[in-house]
Amino acid sequence: MAKARKILLLVHESLVPPEDMEGRTEDEVEECRTEYNVYSTLYNIGHDVRVLGIGDRLTDLREAIEDWQPDITFNLLEEFSGIVTYDHYVVAYLELSRQPYTGCNPRGMMISRDKVLTKQLLAYHRIPTPRFQVFPWGKRFHASRKLRFPLFVKSATEDASLGISQASIVENMARLRERVEFIHEQTQSSALVEEYIEGRELYVGVLGNDRLKSLPIWEMDFGSSQGGGSGIATRKVKWDANYQKRHGIATGLATNLPPGSEQRIAKLAKRIYRALCMSGYARMDLRMRDDGSLFVLEANPNPNLTYGEDLAESALAAGMTYEQLLTRIVNLGLAYQAEWRMFEP
After folding, report:
1. What is the rounded (10 degree) CA torsion for 81, 87, 91, 93?
2. Phi and psi at residue 219, to the nearest 5°
């Protein structure tokens, strides 16, 4: 059994899990399933776990660290003050407080949350990613002639598939302009336009700080949701359980990959992880064309840890139970060498 630790579980103030799920509606269960899974698992394997929900103030976090002095903070935040890209500030605050934490460091989070900067860094490291253009919010529409249709249009800042649908794939300049304007209006953010890569959608989990471990390759099966269109991870595909069931959408272990591609994909996932200065754990989203060529779509720090979802199932395929996965994540957080630790006496 792992050494018992004092663990502060950091969640959004609206997602504080109950002690048990008995008597809860399905919607109530689903809303905080991840938080409950992590809390109950850590508690059941012997850790002293306290849950702290925060919204837009860090006062309670400071007081919890000062008064309780946890061994580590288990970070499940996905935003701060209502802004997705602000969660790295909370992690930076934990570092300033000399408080160990789980998951990605603030530099890696800031870089990977910035989709445009991510693509620029990947291009610098010669890691294949679709050619792209940014259409700034509030500025005049001007499309580069270097981009080739079909194109895929999404928000440059929002995640969780916000604003993504089959209409996100555009075939001509008129539809491109229309979709860019839609993203501007709906998300109040710049639009990121990239060449659409037809092919298999693959997900690769990576664990580690310095020494990295890649998990078995997972694949999205879009089922009948594609219809006459393309397979893309829309909001419904990712989050609507009824839609998933109706269309036979599922993820699972990738099979029938071209010879040698598993090693190639694992190596690529680790290159991405290092190029973006990530730590703890992450998930890489890739596309593979029929000819075996690979393209990076996104790099996701601190991906979904819900029991039974992609990362946990991929870890299980590697022989790692959910309890072992969370223990590994805790140990990686305790072992991470933040700069303040380098100067400890």
Report:
1. -30
2. -135, 145
CB 198 within 8 A of CB 133: no
CATH class of the domain at 199-335: alpha beta
| Residue 300, token pair as written in the block | 């996701």
In this prediction the pTM is 0.91
In this structure, whether the domain defined by 6-102 belongs to CATH 2.60.120 is answered with: no
Is 86 in contact with 157 (CB distance < 8 Å)? no
Domain spanning 131-195: which CATH class is it, in words? Answer: alpha beta
What is the token pair recorded at 105? 């460091």
> Using one digit for the tens of pLDDT, what is the confidence trace for 279-330?
999 999 999 999 999 999 999 999 999 999 999 999 999 999 999 999 999 9
Tell me the pLDDT tens digit for each residue of 116-167.
Answer: 999 999 999 999 999 999 999 989 999 988 889 999 999 888 765 666 888 8
- CA of 5: how far to CAs of 42, 43, 45, 53, 69, in Å? 9, 10, 10, 20, 11
The domain ranges of the chain are 6-102, 131-195, 199-335
Picking from 115, 79, 83, the residue whose alpha carbon sits closest to that of residue 302 is 79
Integer CA distances (angstroms), 33 to 15, 21, 29, in order: 9, 9, 6
- Report d(CA 141, CA 143) in Å as an integer: 7
